Amino acid sequence: MTAISANGITIEYEVHGRAGDPAIVLLRGLGSQLINWPPALMERLAAAGYFVVTFDNRDAGLSSKFEAAGAIDIPELMARAAAGTPLEVPYRLEDMAADVLALMDGLGIEQAHVAGISMGGMVAQILAARHAERLLSMASIMSHSGNPGLPSGTPEAMAALMPSGADPNDREAIINAAFEASKVLAGPGYPTPDRDRRRLVEQAHDRCYCPDGRTRQRAAVVASGNRVEMLRTITVPSQVIHGVDDPLLNIAGGEDTAANIPGAEFHAIAGMGHETPASLAANLAQLIGGFAARIDQSRA
User: Fold this and answer.
1) What's the average model confidence in pLDDT over 245-252?
2) Tens digits of per-residue pLDDT, 34-63?
3) Whole-angstrom Cα distance, residue 117 to residue 115?
4) What gap in Å lies between CA 14 and CA 56, rounded to an integer?
5) Is 171 in contact with 205 (CB distance < 8 Å)?
6) Are 197 and 185 in contact (CB under 8 A)?
7) What does the alpha-carbon distance between residue 26 and residue 138 come to, in Å, rounded to a whole number?
8) In the list 142, 219, 285, 290, which could disulfide-bond 44, CB 3.0-4.6 Å?
9) Residue 196 sits in a domain of what CATH number?
10) pLDDT tens-digit map of 115-167
11) Domain range spanning residue 40?
């Protein structure tokens, strides 16, 4: 375990590769932890000559929790957002972007390639738009633009986003619910054996069970609103990656993100859902690492 004090909080992180190589910082999504990255992804990126940084977002994993804020009533918050009422939330995606910059500072990284999935993709978008001088490139993966006109996820996937109802003291019930929820988000082209899926769910639960933190992270997403105008200001070399079979964030979200970032590349992956299974590691490494390599070569 490796922790660092950054932006006024404690951030748990891991590094892979050599510190002198160009850096790639990977950002996780809602409620997930650094252990949810498939090891093969970091191994492939490190073997390609990159210093890879993974970390737990605030309110997840072993990083600082904002427990004093309690749980957030997401339906009520979304209703207020739809009505145009000003939102007060424990923190915003901009604060999570500041966490990334502070982590980079603490590790002595002046510039980095940044790739984020889902909520992490939204944070990556903010970094690219508002802190371009710190980014070499940006990859927004299985994310969206915040455009309110985008189609929503399937009812099953939306329910799986915030699994609830299990007794907080019943480990087995919680793990079963999380296991079933993760299966809903899977893509048909990149399967994970049930045994491996359950093992990871168990590891994540035992490492950190923080359902209230998930609601606070989602509150930050809701408060972020429509980022379309912000995306149009991005000058950082960018690529957008999205699963054709994503049940939670429809591929239209990725298409809209790419359409609004000047010069962005768009990659649709058939069979990819809303998760990062080991079976997808080679594809992601090729896209993230290949794009970063092209940017590095153009700067040489």
Assistant:
1) 98
2) 999 999 999 999 999 999 999 999 999 999
3) 7
4) 9
5) yes
6) no
7) 10
8) 285
9) 3.40.50.1820
10) 999 999 999 999 999 999 999 999 999 999 999 999 999 999 998 887 666 67
11) 3-299
Whole-number CA gyration radius for the chain? 18
Phi, psi of 93 (to 5 degrees): -60, -30
Give me the residue label for tokens 């899977």. 186
Type of residue numbered 19:
A
In this structure, what is the dihedral angle of CA atoms 50, 65, 127, 89, given to the nearest 10 degrees? 160
The predicted pLDDT at position 255 comes to 98
Strand bridging mode 3-6 / 9-16? antiparallel
Among residues 101, 98, 9, 76, the alpha carbon closest in space to that of 222 is found at 76
Tally Cβ neighbours within 10 Å of residue 82. Answer: 10
Tokens 């749980």 appear where? 71
Strand partners, 26: 54, 115
> Residue 131 is which amino acid?
H
Other CB atoms within 10 Å distance of the CB of residue 110? 10
How many structural domains comprise the chain?
A: 1
Residue 209: both structure tokens together: 């069970």
Task: Please give the structure tokens belonging to residue 123.
Answer: 């944070």
Task: Tell me the residue type at 279.
Answer: S
Q: What are the distances in angstroms from CA 196 to CA 225, 245, 278?
A: 36, 21, 10
Distance, CA of 238 to CA of 113 (rounded, Å)? 10
